[in-house]
Every structure is written in structure tokens, then in C-alpha cells.
Automatic annotation (TrEMBL):
GO CC, any one term: nucleus
Catalytic activity: uridine(38/39/40) in tRNA = pseudouridine(38/39/40) in tRNA
PANTHER family in UniProt: PSEUDOURIDYLATE SYNTHASE, TRNA PSEUDOURIDINE(38_39) SYNTHASE
Family: Belongs to the tRNA pseudouridine synthase TruA family.
Record NCBIfam families: hisT_truA
GO biological process: mRNA pseudouridine synthesis; tRNA pseudouridine synthesis
Name used for this protein in its record: tRNA pseudouridine synthase
GO molecular function, one term: RNA binding
UniProtKB keywords: Isomerase, tRNA processing
EC number(s) on file: 5.4.99.12
Active site positions, chain numbering: 69 (nucleophile)
Residues in Pseudouridine synthase I TruA alpha/beta domain copies: 156-264
Domain of life: Eukaryota
Length: 265
């Protein structure tokens, strides 16, 4: 069988906007040490290589907006990479030319699992990086009213806003030197008439499990199992009487969705 000659191809740098239901996957990021782990990124690269759009991960200058954990979904995951192009490398046409280009969206969606969809693609400058150029990330966490005190949860939400040290609102990786200060914007609002609410949280970057930790505390407050002042105590990392980070269960991952990622024009 004759091998595909990538040296004879033209390439262009593009961004892909991807949506997926993460319920059946072990997270977004491909597990390089175990190819049998079912991940969104693993399926994406398998299809990209099958279509001969890229030769391999190393040579396509791949970048990613942000990893989502096991079970977490996304409506706006952004990746950047060099792909094979049907256009000649003509400087006069500029990097934004899309006329007569391959239909990357249809090509990829024909081969990807039904719960992973490429929504759009766009030409990008060579300086673009999906992670470092991202100006904000926005997550939604959906939940039903049940017996929750929504008004109290909304008040607690306001305490989360602004610049704070979130070390007590995340899972700490001891192998990394983390900076825990983050500026966030958040609120809780009705999502539809069926007693469904959404916790919306927006920041330039998030700590590991930060959203689910915040939601776990809000659930405890909403059930009157914790006082609203618990948030102030968790933020006060210099308290001499601090007994350390309290142990509480993470909020379930299934209702969490990465809904938006912002980039400069």
C-alpha cells in the first residue's frame, strides 16, 4: 500500500469549535500512556489522522482551550492546529480565505461519534494559542430546585464573586506549584419553567475541580447544612484558628458544561 506523502501538501492554521456530551468519556484529554482510555481528544486525533488532515500530534502545533474532566460536557471547546488544505499557499489570498477549501466540519462529523460534533472552523493567525489567548471561560451547572433555598444560594453566589484565594474551593495537586487567586463572576438564575436552575460562573482560568467545589458548598448552604458565612471562612486562608480545608463531596460532574470561551477579535 502506497503511503500518503504529507510533504507534497499545503497546510493552514485553523481553530475548531467542538461540542460534546462527556458522559460516556474519561475526560477530554487523550491518555498518552493508555490508548485504550475512551476520551474525546483520542477520537478527534484518530479521525484527523484517518482523513490525512494531520500527520501526527507533534507536527500539527496543537493547542487546546482547556481540559474537561470525566463526565463533563462542552458546547464551546476550542482547539487550534495545522491541517491539510486544498488551497495553494498564495500570500495574495491571505490567511482568511475560505473559498474552495475543504469542508472540514462535514468531513470530521461523518467519522466522529454522534456525541462529539465539530460546530465550526475558522482560519487563525500563526500566533494564536487556544489556551493562552483565551480571555475567559464560562461554565454552567444545571440543577433542579428540590428542597433548596434558592434565594440563599443566590446570596452566597455573590460572595464568590471577585478576586479571592480559592485554595479551599478546589482539588490541590501536590506535584504542582499553584497560584490560587482567581477573579470570577457568578450567579444563579432560572433556566426554564420546570424548576431547573443554572449556576453560571465565568473566569479567565479555573483551578482543578473549582466549579464543582463551589457548587458543592452552594448545595450545602441551600440545604441549610452550612451557614452562608462558611464562604468567608474558607476564603480566610490566614486565619490562625483555621483547621484546614474541610472535607466535603464534590458536586456530580454530569450537569457541568463548558458553554463558552472568549477570544480577542
Amino acid at each position: 500500500k502506497r503511503e500518503f506523502d504529507f510533504t507534497k501538501c499545503c497546510y493552514r492554521y485553523i481553530a475548531l469549535k467542538i461540542a460534546y456530551f462527556g458522559w460516556n468519556y474519561q475526560g477530554f484529554a487523550e491518555q498518552t500512556q493508555d490508548k485504550n482510555v475512551n476520551t474525546i481528544e483520542g477520537h478527534l486525533f484518530e479521525v484527523l489522522k484517518s482523513l490525512k488532515l494531520i500527520q501526527d500530534r507533534k507536527t500539527c502545533h496543537y493547542s487546546l482551550c482547556g481540559r474537561t474532566d470525566k463526565g463533563v460536557s462542552a458546547f464551546s471547546q476550542i482547539v487550534g492546529l495545522y491541517v491539510r488544505s486544498s488551497l495553494k499557499n498564495d500570500p495574495k489570498k491571505g490567511i482568511y480565505t475560505t473559498e474552495n477549501e475543504m469542508d472540514y466540519v462535514s468531513m470530521l462529523n461523518r467519522m466522529l461519534p454522534i456525541d462529539i460534533r465539530v460546530l465550526a472552523w475558522s482560519p487563525i493567525k500563526s500566533s494564536f494559542h487556544a489556551r493562552y489567548n483565551c480571555s475567559y471561560r464560562k461554565y454552567n451547572y444545571f440543577f433542579t430546585k428540590q428542597d433548596l433555598d434558592i434565594e440563599l444560594m443566590q446570596k452566597a453566589c455573590k460572595k464568590l464573586e471577585g478576586l479571592h484565594d480559592f485554595r479551599n474551593f478546589c482539588k490541590i495537586d501536590p506535584t504542582k506549584h499553584n497560584k490560587f487567586e482567581r477573579t470570577i463572576y457568578s450567579y444563579i438564575s432560572p433556566y426554564n419553567p420546570f424548576d431547573i436552575y443554572v449556576f453560571e460562573i465565568k473566569s479567565m482560568a479555573f483551578l482543578w475541580h473549582q466549579v464543582r467545589c463551589c457548587m458543592a458548598i452552594l448545595f450545602l448552604i441551600g440545604k441549610h447544612k452550612e451557614n452562608i458565612d462558611i464562604i468567608d471562612k474558607l476564603f480566610d486562608v490566614n486565619d490562625e484558628n483555621d483547621q484546614g480545608k474541610p472535607i466535603y463531596d464534590l458536586a456530580p460532574e454530569i450537569p457541568l458544561v463548558l458553554v463558552d470561551a472568549g477570544y480577542p477579535e
